[in-house]
Each structure stands twice: as C-alpha cells, then as structure tokens.
Design a protein that fits this description.
Strand order of the largest sheet of chain A: 6-7-8-9
Number of helices of chain A: 22
Shape of chain B: flat
Structural class of chain A: alpha/beta
Oligomer: heterodimer
Distance between the termini of chain A: 69 Å
Helix content of chain A: 55-70%
Distance between the termini of chain B: 73 Å
Strand content of chain A: 5-15%
Chain lengths: 512, 440
C-alpha cells in the first residue's frame, strides 16, 4: 500500500479515491488490531436535506408512506433550521451490505472519523451482537422494506389512503407491544410430535394404577368444567400473549387479509428495531471506542496529520460530552459517553487492575487480553446485562452516580444511594434496570377472549411499583385496538405484587 | 474496497408526500390557526408564507405510556456533588432548585413550521369553496408591448436582422457556387501575365480560353446576387398584452356601533378575497381604507378594523370621500379602481337617494367593479335570503345593480356566502368584458 509511507489525506476536501483509501487503511488496522469482523460496506454520499429525509423515515432508506413521518420531518427540519440541533454526520443501517450514509458537508477528517465509527464500529456490533443475530436478518431487511413499501402503496391504490392509514395508525400505536421478547422453542416436526405422544402413552400405561378410578368425583363439578373450558380456550389461543399486534393479526375476526399483512409489516419493522433499542449504550459505545482507538492508532502511525487529529478530537469530545444532572444542558445520560467510558474501563481492568477491580471482576481483571474481553462483551450483552456485569466502582466514582428515589405522593425526592461502598451495588442495579426495556415498558398482555361468545377482548396491565398508565393516551390506544379487534376491548390493571385489581377500563366507557 | 453510491443527485423531497399527508391530517387545526392569524394580521399579508404552530390534537400518536405522576421509581443521575444517602430534595414542581427531573420532554407535539403560500390559501379559502378560477390570472388587456419572437421573412426594413440575413446569403452563395472576387482576380492576373510575355499561338489560345472563363465567371457573379431578397430575415415581434399594472382597492365600511366583531370578521374576509384577486392580477395594488359613520375618513388598516366610533350612519359620505381620493390620487386613466363596501345595511333615511345619484352619475363609470356585501345576522339570513326587500341601502343599491353590470351585491351571513359575490368577477373572460351579462 503506497499510502503507508505518508499521510492518508491532507486538507479538508475529500474525493472518492481518498475515501476509498482511508476506508481500506482503517479496515486493515481494525481487523489486525481490534479483530473486528464486519459486513461489506456500502457508502452513500447524501446532502443535508436527504439526511433529514432519512431521519424522518426512522432512518431507513426505504419506507412506506405515512403522515407521521411527515410530522417528524417537519419537526426535525425545524430544529435543524433553528440551529437547535446539528445533523448527525452519519447514519448507519443494519443491513448486509452495511449501508453508511455520509454527509457531503463533512471534511475529510470527519469522513475518516465517521468511517471508523459507523462502517467499522457499528458494523461490527450489528454483525456480532447476539440480539441482532437472533432477531434481525441483515441480508433481507432492504428487500423486505421494498416489499412493504410496494405492498402498502398497492393497498392504498386499491382500498384508499384513508383505509390504509387507519390500520397503520392503529398498528403504530401498538408498536411497543408488537415485539416478541423471547425466542420460542422451535415447532416440533410431526414425527417428533407423534413420538412425544407415543412416549406419553407408554408412560401412562406403565404408571397406570386402578386405584385412581375409585376416587369420589369433585363436588363442584360444573365449576371445574368452566375453568376447564377457559383453560382450554386459553391454550388454543396460546394465551396469555404479550405481542398484541401478533395476536390481533392472527386472531382478529374482522380484518381482511391485506389488513393483516399491513399489521404484519409494522410488526416486523418493530421487531427489527427492538435490538437497537436494547443496545443503545453498547452500540454507540462500541462505535465510539472503535473510532477513538483507530484514530489514535492512525495518528501514532503517522497516517493522519496533527490538524486533522485536532479536528477529530474536537468532534469526539463534543460527542461524548456529559453534563452533570444540575447543568442546564443535562438531558439524560449520554450513551456515547457511558459506553465509551465503560469499554475503556474494561480495557483498563484487563491490563492494569487495582485490588478493588480484582475483587469485583475476578475473571477479567488482569487477564491482559482486553481485545477478546471486549469482543465477548460486544457479542453477548445488551445494555442492561452489560451494565449489570461491567460497571465498576471506579466508574461510578468517576461519574459520581447517585440514585434518587421518586415516589409520586411525596413532595420530596430522596437520595437512596451514592458512589460509596454501600451504594455501588444498588447504583449499578438501578442503572442497569433503567436500561431494561422489558421492565421499563408497561407490561400488557392479552389474557382472555371468548371467540364463541361475546368476543370481548380482555387485556391485563401488570402495574409495577404503582406506575399506572397515562389516561388520555391509554384510552386513545384502546380505541385503536378496538378498531383492529372489532368488538369490545377492556383492560384491567392488576398490581403485580399483590394481584389486586386496581381498575378496569373498557372501550364501551370511552366511546368513539 | 467499499461500494460508493453518490446519492446527492437523487430527487429531492423524498418525504414531500408524507408532509402533504400530515398537513391533510392536521387540516382542521391548521385552518383554525390560519384563520386566527388572518383575523389579526394585515390584509396584504394573507398572500404569503405563514408560520403556524402545530397543534397536538388530531395528530397525536398515542401509545401505552406510564403516567409520570404515579408510583415510585428510581432515577440514576450523574454528577453528584454533595448528596449523601437519606438527603431529601424538594421536587421541581414545589419550587425546588433542581430543574432536571429525568424523563422525556413532550414538546414534539407542539411546534411551529412554515406553510407555503399555496397551502395557506388552500386552507383559508376552503370555506369559501373557491374554485380554481382564482388561480387563473385573467388579464384585462389595455396595452401591448412588442416582444421578440423569432424571425420572419417579411417585415419593415428597420427590423432587418443583419446577422441572420448575411448568414442566409453566405449559405446560398456557397450552395450556388458564386465565384469569389479572388477567383476572378486570379484569372485576370494570369491573362495579364500571359499577355506581357512574348506571344505564340498556343498562348493566344490559352488567353482566349481564359478570357472566356473570366467572362463566364463575371456573368455568373452578376446573376447570383450577393444578397438576394430570399435571404432577408426580419426580427419578428409579437404584441405582448400588458395588463394595466396598477390597481387601487377601496375598502368602505360602516363602523358604527351596530358592526360587531363577527360582522367585521366577515367584512375582512370579503376584503381579503378581493385584495388577493387584485394582487394576482396587477403588478401594483394599493388599498385605501375608508370608514364612515355619519362622516367618513381615510384611515390605516389597524384603525379600520379595530376602532369603533359612535355616530349615525350616512353612507354617501364614504362615497364622496372615495370620489375625492380618486380625483386627487388615482386618476381612472392610470388606475383600475375596485370598490368593496361592507355594511349592515343601516343608512340615514334620506341618504339612500343621494347614494344612488352618486353611484350612477360619478362613481360607477370610474370603477372596474363595485362589490357590496350586506352582513346579516345568521338568524335573519333565511328571512332575507331571497327577497328583494330589506334595508334601505339594499333597496337603493338594487336599483343601481339593474343599470350597471359591474355592480355586484350580496347578503352574507357565513363565510361561505362571500365567494358568490365575486363569481362574476372571476368568471369574466378577457374579450367580453361588457357583454358578460350572465345572471349570477
């Protein structure tokens, strides 16, 4: 490679040759030094307006039409015009080949930074993290979106925009409740099923005891039958079911086939994004760690000049800026900052651990192989488990984390734990818990419906820690469910600890 | 090597369709906002872009969300400075100093953005059921201005296009092989040089041949003209119609106590509509506001719509004032004069006769168009809707209407009634200005 001898680029202008050379050099170093494993990359140069477009259609290059995307576009455009928010320098899509959008306004130094961040960091994470491997099919998403866009456009032609919009509105409202959170065991083949049945019969024959026949029948026979039919019913519908969209798609009696397909499209897209929502800190942390490490390596090897490095560092420090809670600029924990800090901390623990680290992380402290430790962490964790596993006391002290207990009926917050010996565990647990999407989203399930009777769909909301649903949006969402279900829908709020019914809300109370 | 795709040249506005869908969705809310803005804004501003505040209703995207003020939760925050476990801090709502309770800010639903002029008009005039006709710019052709439009084979000598003519001539000369002067000179020179030398038979023969050749060339040169009439091209000019570019619009309104908020709002829409139409039609549009009670005065727009005066009602004072202003500032030769008058129909008992006289004798011959609207109570509208008897002013104007085709009058009670007043104006085609006597 001719470029090894000198700088990869000089000046701020870029062209495709330089971009390509920079990518190749960075990729070579990434593979050799960090052992990254990435999808092939497709880089697309876009203008700022196209970046806004991409923002508004949830970052995907193809998307069906819906008014809410227009709303988001107007909102983003407004923020951008006002200068309230800069645009991202890049956007990356979990697909194979991995699509990276680069903004044309970026300087060459920025393009190099973005290449390391997105084309290598995010790309590696998408390809290797277990959630993405389990739940998303990077090779198929683009063609699926293409299908979805075309399908919805055809539906609009055939059934009218309003009819399609009605279904989409309702399905969008349930996107949060439209994902599977756990893998189910694969369906058995019919041969396996037969074998299982045979085994069971054999077992029953072996353990047959005539004595059971002599037991007197239960006094309350009818009640048993009733709970029996209810259990039977639930079993046939595989209730309870937490994926509301899936349940409606499969079981609603009023939907046309095309409406089911539209719901399915929304559900598939929600499922596609579910891993990303669970891995914000890790994903951004991984990309930031990768770009920071790679850029320093490039600089050390004399591949980028001091001016470019300064520009890169300035952007880097903007990205990982984290104000304290009492700073007017505070708007939550910056996932870039937390992710990078944790990963650099892991690097430190593996190479130069303190006695405390040896106490807390006996299996990685001082193992010397920070690369493998990080690769394992990237592959096998989501935010919640990552923080629960790797947030060290050192970092808690550095960030000066504290836990604030907030009870609704109390006019005061109470400081529950701080960064001291007694607080580390609870700070770490609380922080991890706050990244657990499954726990922080309302838990709503379909519990019962009598398809042969009044077809009343019953939902249950398990109320944790007394956190109930916001009334207005709950009613509006229930109305949407009713639209998809066609019959009465009710939701009962049940306290998760005591099992006591708190209140019940039905669509018949809400009205159209 | 990665694949590069340059998308910068892709069509823009990929999300335009989504934006339009969103606007359609938010239509009712937007309409209300625009109407409020127009009610408070200036007439001339209607025809511009508007920043509107996006309302949350109707465009919300509901989902199951936790209520903020319920239950107990734990927040993890960075940057502790002096807290110890067990410290109690007042919540921000209770006037505490901690302005950063964690959680999302729900500001997304309420934001401002800019609507284009077309979108504004569309929303504003929806109630008026304004047909596309307002978008057709009918022109009143009063003058013509020559505008170059290619070339012609005929024309006046002053318009000869020399370049084009010479190009044609050159082409023709090449095509017909007109001998050049150099060729003739060469032959003549050869003859001369031969004649200068001692002669022999062969050379003499050669000279004769050359002389014949020279003669032939000269004949040919004479026959094929340097510039032939067929070469000549003239600049062609089309007569481009130029509409009379100036218009003045008089807004006349009764501002006595009987004109309330609703009446003024309707009147304003009526004025806005006329102004909009004129603005599209003329390069320069001026608006004059004349209010009257028992006396009339010219005022600015602010005063016109928002000040009330007490007093009787004498309509003719406004007409006189208008006539005076026309005489002074807007000679009808240079200005197209439009008058829009709004009133609740009250007039001083003996004044209506005077109004008729003024209109018949002076004003109507000056104006392009005179539109009068009488604003009714909604309850009255079905009583008066179709009949000819009504207020004294209405009866008086009915007589004027019979005599002048460019006089329009109507009773309005709701915004939807306004448009028909202008129907004649919009429907009128250039060319049959005076014969447009169709029944409205």
């Amino acid at each position: 490679m001719a470029s090894i001898s000198g700088l990869l680029f000089s000046g701020s202008d870029w062209d495709f040759r330089t971009l390509s050379r920079a990518y190749e050099t960075i990729e070579a170093i990434a593979t050799e030094e960090l052992h990254l494993d990435v999808y092939p990359v497709q880089m697309e140069i876009i203008s700022s307006e196209q970046m806004l477009d991409a923002y508004s259609s949830v970052g995907m290059p193809l998307m069906y039409r819906h008014w809410s995307f227009g709303k988001h576009y107007l909102y983003q455009e407004l923020l951008y015009r006002k200068g309230g928010r800069g645009l991202a320098y890049e956007l990356v899509i979990n697909s194979n080949p991995c699509i990276v959008y680069l903004m044309e306004e970026n300087t060459m130094a920025l393009q190099a930074l973005v290449t390391a961040h997105a084309a290598l960091g995010h790309n590696h994470f998408f390809k290797n993290n277990y959630l993405f491997r389990q739940w998303t099919d990077a090779g198929a998403i683009l063609s699926y979106l293409d299908f979805a866009k075309g399908y919805i456009a055809r539906c609009e032609e055939r059934h009218g925009v309003d009819a399609v919009e009605e279904i989409l509105d309702a399905a969008h409202a349930l996107m949060e409740q439209g994902v599977f959170r756990y893998h189910r065991p694969p369906k058995l083949s019919s041969e396996k099923q037969r074998e299982g049945l045979r085994e069971r019969l054999e077992y029953e024959e072996r353990s047959y005891n005539d004595l059971w026949r002599t037991l007197p029948p239960s006094k309350d026979g009818t009640k048993v039958r009733e709970t029996d039919t209810m259990a039977e019913r639930k079993k046939s519908l595989k209730l309870p079911e937490e994926n509301l969209l899936y349940f409606l798609e499969k079981n609603s009696l009023i939907l046309e086939p095309w409406q089911r397909e539209v719901i399915r499209i929304v559900r598939v897209i929600a499922q596609y994004f579910y891993p990303q929502r669970q891995t914000q800190v890790m994903n951004e942390g991984c990309a930031t760690f990768v770009h920071y490490t790679l850029m320093n390596l490039l600089f050390d090897r004399g591949l980028i000049g001091e001016g470019a490095m300064l520009e890169i560092l300035r952007n880097h420090s903007n990205v990982i800026f984290q104000p304290g809670f009492d700073d007017p600029r505070f708007s939550g924990i910056n996932p870039y900052a937390l992710g990078l800090d944790m990963m650099q901390d892991i690097q430190r623990i593996s190479t130069a651990p303190t006695a405390e680290d040896r106490d807390w992380f006996p299996d990685i402290a001082g193992n010397g192989d920070w690369r493998q430790t990080l690769l394992d962490a990237w592959a096998n964790h989501r935010d919640e488990s990552f923080i629960r596993q790797y947030l060290s006391p050192t970092l808690i002290r550095k960030w000066r984390f504290f836990v604030l207990a907030d009870a609704a009926n109390d006019p005061h917050y109470e400081v529950a734990s701080i960064h001291n010996e007694r607080g580390y565990q609870s700070v770490r647990a609380a922080l991890a818990h706050s990244y657990d999407i499954g726990a922080s989203r309302p838990d709503i399930q379909v519990v019962d419906v009598d398809l042969l009777g009044d077809r009343h769909l019953r939902l249950q909301h398990k109320v944790k820690d007394g956190i109930v649903l916001e009334g207005g949006s709950r009613d509006a969402t229930l109305r949407h469910i009713r639209k998809l279900w066609g019959y009465e829908v009710s939701m009962v709020a049940v306290d998760a600890q005591t099992g006591a019914t708190l209140h019940e809300r039905s669509t018949s109370q809400i009205g159209e | 090597m990665p694949i590069f795709i340059d998308r910068r040249l892709n069509p823009k506005d990929k999300s335009l369709g989504n934006r339009q869908r969103f606007l359609r969705r938010a239509r009712e809310e937007l309409k209300r906002t625009i109407r409020d803005q127009i009610r408070t804004g200036k007439i001339a501003d209607v025809d511009a872009e508007h920043a509107v505040s996006m309302p949350a209703r109707g465009t919300g995207e509901p989902s199951f969300n936790d209520a903020r003020n319920s239950g107990s939760r734990r927040h993890v925050l960075p940057g502790n400075k002096h807290f110890a476990p067990g410290d109690r801090l007042p919540k921000p709502g209770q006037g505490g100093g901690m302005g950063s309770a964690p959680g999302r800010t729900e500001s997304e639903d309420d934001f401002r953005f800019v609507l284009s002029r077309e979108e504004v008009l569309d929303l504003f005039f929806e109630d008026l059921e304004l047909p596309d006709m307002v978008k057709l710019n009918l022109k009143e052709i009063l003058a013509f201005k020559p505008r170059r439009a290619g070339f012609a084979a005929t024309g006046s000598p002053t318009n000869i296009n020399v370049g084009r003519t010479m190009r044609n001539s050159h082409g023709r000369r090449i095509a017909l092989r007109r001998p050049k002067q150099e060729e003739l000179d060469a032959v003549a020179q050869e003859i001369a040089s031969l004649e200068a030398k001692p002669q022999n038979a062969e050379m003499r023969q050669r000279i004769v041949a050359l002389q014949e050749e020279l003669e032939r060339l000269e004949r040919r040169r004479k026959r094929i003209a340097f510039v032939d009439p067929v070469d000549i091209r003239f600049n062609r000019f089309d007569a481009q119609p130029v509409p009379n570019a100036n218009a003045v619009m008089f807004c006349l309104m009764d501002v006595s106590g009987s004109m309330g908020e609703r009446e003024k709002d309707l009147a304003k829409r009526f004025f806005v509509l006329l102004h909009l139409f004129l603005k599209r039609r003329y390069d320069r549009t001026e608006v004059v506001f004349i209010r009257h009670t028992h006396e009339a005065q010219e005022v600015d727009e602010e005063t016109f719509f928002y000040n009330t005066q007490s007093g009787g009602t004498v309509v003719s004072t406004a007409l006189e004032e208008m006539h005076r202003i026309v005489e002074q500032r807007y000679p009808s030769r240079e200005w197209n004069i439009y008058v829009a008058q709004a009133s609740d129909g009250d007039n001083f008992v003996t004044d209506s006769e005077r109004c008729i006289a003024l209109l018949d004798e002076q004003i109507m011959r000056l104006c392009q168009y005179f539109a009068y609207v009488e604003i009714l109570d909604e309850r009255e509208s079905h009583i008066f809707g179709a009949t000819d008897n009504g207020t004294s002013l209405w009866r008086a104007y009915s007589a004027v209407k019979l005599r002048w085709s460019n006089f329009q009058m109507s009773r309005i009670a709701t915004p939807a009634d306004i448009y028909p007043v202008f129907r004649r104006l919009f429907a009128r085609q250039p060319g049959y200005q005076k014969s447009g006597e169709r029944g409205g």
